[in-house]
Amino acid sequence: MATFNQITTSEQLEALIQESGEKPVLIFKHSTRCPISSRAYLEAKRYLEGSPNPDAAYALIHVVEDRPVSLEAADRLGVEHASPQAILLKDGQAVWNTSHARITSSALQEALS
């Protein structure tokens, strides 16, 4: 089963960006203090428990606990920070992102198909 790998450092973020040159990478930015984010996280986990893209990598950033990495991701990827937020990377670039109630299992399935 696919799982989110939590990233907490700039080096891990850089490795993910590099990895996206070989396969799609989905980053989920999650606030552990927000009920909207909790609902979106459940949707993301539902996607992973269903039929996730087996060729993709999945990463999790906790936006409060790992704020510097969260802000660096927004800056490096050119995506305005939101929480919760899903960002899809390919070839080192953000090619799709969405946030809040638009994060659903079906939206992730479509983006990663």
Task: Walk me through what this model shows.
The chain has 113 residues and is an alpha/beta fold. It is 38% helix and 24% strand. The chain contains 4 helices and 5 strands. A hairpin with a 2-residue loop joins strand 4 and strand 5.
Question: How are the elements arranged and paired?
Answer:
Blueprint: E1 5-6, H1 10-19, E2 25-30, H2 35-49, E3 57-62, H3 67-77, E4 85-90, E5 93-99, H4 105-111
Parallel strand pairs: 1-3, 2-3
Antiparallel strand pairs: 2-4, 4-5
Helix pairs in contact: 2-4
Descriptive tags:
alpha/beta; 113 residues
Order of helices and strands: EHEHEHEEH
Structural class: alpha/beta
Q: Could you report the average pLDDT, rounded to the nearest whole number? A: 97
* Number of beta strands: 5
Strand content: 15-25%
Question: What's the quick description here?
Answer:
With 113 residues, the chain is an alpha/beta fold.
